[in-house]
Amino acid sequence: MSEIGIALLGLGRAGSFHLASLRSLPGARLRQVYDPDAAKAERVARETGCHRARDAKQAVTAAGVDAVVIATPTLTHHGLVLAALEAGRPVLSEKPLGVRPEEIDQCFERAREEGVPLLVAFQRRFDPSFAAVLEAAHAGEMGQLQFIRSVSRDNPVPGIDYIRTSCGIFHDCAVHDLDMVCQIAEAAPEEVFAFASSFIPEIGAVGDVDNVAIALRFPGGLLATIDVNRKSAYGYDQRLEVFGSGGMLQVENRPRTLAVRASEAGIARPPADHSFPTRYRDAYRAELECFLDCVRGKRAVPITHEQVRRSHAVAEAAERSFREGRPLAPDV
Amino acid sequence: MSEIGIALLGLGRAGSFHLASLRSLPGARLRQVYDPDAAKAERVARETGCHRARDAKQAVTAAGVDAVVIATPTLTHHGLVLAALEAGRPVLSEKPLGVRPEEIDQCFERAREEGVPLLVAFQRRFDPSFAAVLEAAHAGEMGQLQFIRSVSRDNPVPGIDYIRTSCGIFHDCAVHDLDMVCQIAEAAPEEVFAFASSFIPEIGAVGDVDNVAIALRFPGGLLATIDVNRKSAYGYDQRLEVFGSGGMLQVENRPRTLAVRASEAGIARPPADHSFPTRYRDAYRAELECFLDCVRGKRAVPITHEQVRRSHAVAEAAERSFREGRPLAPDV
Amino acid sequence: MSEIGIALLGLGRAGSFHLASLRSLPGARLRQVYDPDAAKAERVARETGCHRARDAKQAVTAAGVDAVVIATPTLTHHGLVLAALEAGRPVLSEKPLGVRPEEIDQCFERAREEGVPLLVAFQRRFDPSFAAVLEAAHAGEMGQLQFIRSVSRDNPVPGIDYIRTSCGIFHDCAVHDLDMVCQIAEAAPEEVFAFASSFIPEIGAVGDVDNVAIALRFPGGLLATIDVNRKSAYGYDQRLEVFGSGGMLQVENRPRTLAVRASEAGIARPPADHSFPTRYRDAYRAELECFLDCVRGKRAVPITHEQVRRSHAVAEAAERSFREGRPLAPDV
Amino acid sequence: MSEIGIALLGLGRAGSFHLASLRSLPGARLRQVYDPDAAKAERVARETGCHRARDAKQAVTAAGVDAVVIATPTLTHHGLVLAALEAGRPVLSEKPLGVRPEEIDQCFERAREEGVPLLVAFQRRFDPSFAAVLEAAHAGEMGQLQFIRSVSRDNPVPGIDYIRTSCGIFHDCAVHDLDMVCQIAEAAPEEVFAFASSFIPEIGAVGDVDNVAIALRFPGGLLATIDVNRKSAYGYDQRLEVFGSGGMLQVENRPRTLAVRASEAGIARPPADHSFPTRYRDAYRAELECFLDCVRGKRAVPITHEQVRRSHAVAEAAERSFREGRPLAPDV
Asked: Is the ipTM beyond the 0.90 threshold?
């Protein structure tokens, strides 16, 4: 099994845990690293014994690069994904592939033409707990599905510079819940309705919201609610509940440690994992392993064009429902 | 402290746990009992040493009766409440007081005129766990409230005869969640939206639904979702979640016993309490104690006319939102 | 089914919850009540409409008394049990029946001679959680049993007057754990070893200890440990763990309410139930129901002479092991 | 911060997770790897770009090696530790350093003479959950300590070849519990008593036991129990309980995933982590990071000669107590 040479673009929030996974994964070798912060990139290059690229496109086309991992700011994804695909390189990219559905289509079509895998990083799919619930739901363990609830509460609040170019909470956060809910439902919703509000003045000031409630109606009567918030005091909160005629499946939060304190004041466990790098450590690693398998042709890309487009369309419908104050059918 | 003589009307689901509380509460004495099933009423009268009334109105006006507990079928509440109030007797009644808001108003106005307490049995308010969360939320323990979720899943499914005269799931079940959510919010919602569906053919056949998702928007940006289902395989499921800037309050379910089984198959606890008589045993008792205190003038009725009317109006708006497919402002 | 007339002796810690059960149990009627505190007994007699006996023996032999419940101070049990049995009355007595094993034997022999049931109140046996674990263990759910751990931590600390006449922590507290452990093992241990110490000066001052660790070895290699403490800050702590080749059974504590608080400080549940009257409310009631069934001849006494004697002998061996600093074989 | 060159001896159970940590830790570089299985060592050498040593002592003294990690079979530890120390190389070694206390002393004395750090791998000390409890106990969060319970149940059962040279369950397993208990107590016990038995015929056949209960008495009246078993059906079970006048600290097990299944059969979570490599992943990494800090002189070795000797002596006393059937004072 030969080593796959990787170009890693972006060393920010997402880039740094991809870096950690790449350091420890046998079968992958970091060849090129790029970040606009040259000093940071230089340091990483030195520590890992790889090359620092002067610009992202150069990294993508460099010799020895077999595949590309894209973790740059949201609005640069589309161009870099296309550049990598055009160079015939398989791509693992943070979502979204673009701000309009046509951009998503364009990427997947180009991947198809080039015959190379394109994996969009809906990391929750690779989390062992979410994956177990998804599998159990599809295996019929809880009978006929009737209701789903997904909740995502962020911690800590991302910086306002990130928020500003994040495409809004519906596309930046809720899309992960929508992807999971639609995946469990194996369908797009027929109707979506959303309420939203802002409690964090900086976020309200840039026209975004930070508190969202979404209701969904799927074919056959399956209903769902999603609630998303940008700031959870007790740690990163990522829960799921799937209710059916036979019972309920849930994903719980993981406390930061396994220590318990019992006193007159009560029985206290630590707050949830601080944030996504620790909560999804295993998921990010599994995602990267999946990507390597896709590059080697040992596995088909598990997150399809249709699914990525569906999640985008439902997020779009939810946001428009909130803006227009009425239920909408997503354009899938 | 003299004993309060009680007339208990109805010995069905609700009546039987009121009976159990009455047996063990010092300060109350059962004087009259009525149920259309004369044999059942006779048996209870014999066991408790009280009198079996031949009809409900006779029980209400009998000598020695200081207060009336009404647990008869839904559609009879209104008439019996009025009859008892007109006889100058304090009333504890299962909800609803009537099917139209005017009927609720009429009861409370009559109670005011007669100067006697009228307590509507929203028993969740008296449950130690719900009460603790309500109190902590109002005390500001979790900072500014941003999101509430309430879930009620029934077990077992009530008989179709009950369903038929229950006024529908919005007024029969969801109204408890709506009461709690509005109580925590200390407000009526500005807008309500609901999806609903039926998975139980018998329930669909009588025009009712058994699976409901409600979204609410309150003044100031507080949002809420409620989900209700008639049939929960793992036991009676009654949970609450109140999220604010400082953290989250929750009410969990209680497992049937404290036994745990750990094996290769996993770590298993028993399902939730089977149903409301065990889950709310302490709440029903506390409700009755509160009622006795109201009768003695030691305490004001904690569930006000305005609150009962508000819960009714929001349930009505939720049902109409579902029927009409659009968000509605409740008529409060 | 005719009502059973009950004489209740003692209205202290144990007597008061027997009183509460008796008020609500159909099938039993309180006829006589006795307590050295005449005013308290008078008040109870008035509230329940029964007769206050001037002395305990008079209560036992009074007309209308079909059975006797003994909840008086420890050192009076033996005499009162014998008096009731001699009067041909079935007895439910708090443990111990006496301070020496011969006294236990004497009581059971007298009960056998009189042909009336004698039930010793090891209430943990009637608790639904402990009973479920006991049943599962005997049903072989966890395969071959290898290790048992029982823990009992009291809250609040009983008054020093109680402690002084309690026969010591081994016979007063640990005997409940020993009864349960031997019952699960279906055997007496071959060897017992104990360490103990005192952290509460008042208890140490009367020659008792308040912190105990016991190790037991049963035939076939099953081992057990028991730890007992008089003062648990986080509430009454009563847990059990049964480990076998197929897994583990546990009894957990019950939090005071189902409310959860999640904040930056962690995820907090309330402390355990304050003490035995709430923790064992259902157990005490089930125990009394069992006793009524025994009185009616519908059920054999489930706690046998041999079992009561065994628990006493093992408690005795544990205490002596601690005093002598060496492992001992209990005299069973 | 220059990279520390590491020689890793042994690629078995312990060696493989040290390898995983070493791959991902910035600041360390694997230089030499040795295992009696030359093919395995060759493969690792190739994957990590390091040199395969032909024998262990050669690895230790090779150029570029700044520090040595020893994860070879138990009985080889002593010789290799001494060889590495004599070569002036800091050592991280799996326990035990030897089978007799003099061997432990010899290693630490040599380390002192050479002025190089020697860290014995009691990895539980580096686990965030155990460390949090240890710290809270010493900070007085639970007041005066009165009782400790530690439980370790293995899964899966190690192979009989491992068992045969493991020095017995007291020194191989219970020593971790004893280390933690004594560390919390900040003392050696005055007396130790143990029962033990065997339920796994292969283990009994080689003269070892697989089921152990130990009781300990510390100065001042603090008591402890430890129970250890070689085979836990529900996964690797590693719990701790520290009880004091102010409450209780606990370390719980971590379920394999965060998924929950609620059905008529109950509420089920997955079994505990399968075994030490996953349970202690973070601990092993933190241990290695600590070792690197010790090598760089940034931190003193946190596990002292006296502590290692104490744990050995108490394990020895526990085993002898079991063999001789009487309580013993450890030779510390």
From this structure: yes
